[in-house]
Amino acid sequence: MNSPSKRTFTLRGREASSRQRYSIACALESVYGLKVNWEVDPAYGDRMVLLWDNREVASWFNHPLALGASGRSLPLGWSIWEREEDKAVRLMLPGFVQAMEDQGDSVSLPFDPLAATFHALTCWDEQHGKLELDAHGRPATGQLPWRKESGMARLGSREISMSNQHHWPWIEVMWHAILNDVDDLPALRMSFQPTFDVDVAYKHLGRPRWKSLLLQARDLVLGRWSLVVERRLTLRGKKKDAFDTYGWIRECHAEESVGWFVLAADRKPPHDIGLDPNGEALPALVEVLGQGNDVVGWHPSYAAVDNQTVRGLEKARFESWRHGNAHVVRTHYLRGAPGRWWREAVASGVESDASLGWSRDVGFRSGFSRSFVAYDLDAESTLPLVVRPLAVMDTAMRVGLGWSSSDARGHMEAMMGLVKEVGGTWMSCWHNTSVSDEGEWQGWRATYVHMVEVARRPQGA
Fold first, then answer.
1. Which pLDDT does position 104 carry in this prediction?
2. Do 391 and 428 touch, CB atoms closer than 8 A?
3. Is the peptide bond before 208 cis (omega within 30 degrees of 0)?
4. pTM
5. pLDDT for 377-429, tens place per residue?
């Protein structure tokens, strides 16, 4: 028998397609740090067998999606996988294959996990126009295949309404269940990656004197006395700017590095309304945020996602600021369609994109919590772009789902428990404004602290 250090997975069956190799690289090789061997054996026909240390772990029949079939009308074979023995699991998955009578050998799985993985990581349904888009071109969750299903999704003793399966990294849950009996696999621990978007850097500071005077006049006319007093005290240095939460955030994350994404866009209401990037405040902020281990990424504006010229000008401006890293991005409003945006991002020199998340819901848009390499369906090959999925965004919880700060705590704690069990990644997206405890965000700073505390707890604690 091989020593544990040399144990690895082997896939035995037909010659691997590029889609199958991609799915294995993302789901097994990258996750466990192991090289998966591929053994071609024509005798297996359309049957695939996964082995660990020469012991069969799972087997299935290939789904056409994993072999290269395309088209919006391609039957994806959605059904529910339910297993009670070993570790109980219940998920709705694509890739189910109707076994032919002449196939002979039986299989342990009724679906193709490589097809399911490929479907999820390429955001197949999004790229084929199967999900409804909102006014900003972002997908909604209402047309996800499991939305109308009853009952519960399950992993062991953990349960969630099947209609909310996207709140789990369901592809990682699937592989966790498949590999449940495999001995000596490298242990997986959840990775916590806190990130903050900076859309409006300051509430009162950072504006030219003439603009501050105009704002004071406007608020006097409208009778906003408290805002007038607050602005005067802030500009005189007698009160801290309400949106200047950067020092607090860094204190909160003494144990983690923080990812920052700063909007550097020309003002174009109603969507791009940050500070003037030609002033001194934003470049100075980026320089301060970039000190230490934190990465300050570019936050391409609403207009930049649609317009290559705007995108190029913004990128050049942001790169000119000390510590501004335009190779790392998250788009404003989480805009940008998988596939098209991935190709455009690569063409703009982007290497890492943290935009893949639900804008009005929580959970995992690609069924995966860990970072993965993007795949180009047009070229049938990988792209030099790492996609970093989001788990939760503050505005999605408060506005999209209508959760109170207390509701959000409970939901995030349950989600993190599952992510910890499968050894995934918890990337949070908040804003400097949402931990200000100002106005509509009152109470949310404590919710953020609770999330951090839960993320740091050891599994099972």
1. 52
2. yes
3. no
4. 0.95
5. 999 999 999 999 999 999 999 999 999 999 999 999 999 999 999 999 999 99
Residue 118 identity? F
Which distant-in-sequence residues (6+ apart) come within 8 Å of 274 by Cβ? 198, 199, 200, 201, 263, 264, 265, 267, 282
- Cα–Cα dist 125/335, whole Å: 17
**How far apart are the C-alpha atoms of 252 and 451, rounded to whole Å?**
11
245 and 432 in contact (C-beta within 8 Å)?
Answer: yes
Tokens of 415: 């989600």
Beta bridge partners of 60: 48
Task: Count CB atoms within 10 A of the CB of residue 260.
Answer: 24
Average pLDDT on 214-225 reads: 95
Give the SS3 label for residue 253: coil
- How far is Cα 33 from Cα 178, in angstroms, rounded to an integer? 18
Planar angle of CA 246, 199, 344, nearest 5 degrees: 120
For residue range 297-355, list pLDDT tens digits in order: 999 999 999 999 999 999 999 999 999 999 999 999 999 999 999 999 999 999 999 99
Alpha carbon of residue 381 to chain centroid: 21
Q: How far apart are CA 96 and CA 107, in angstroms?
A: 12
Bridge partners, 262 (sequence order): 198, 298
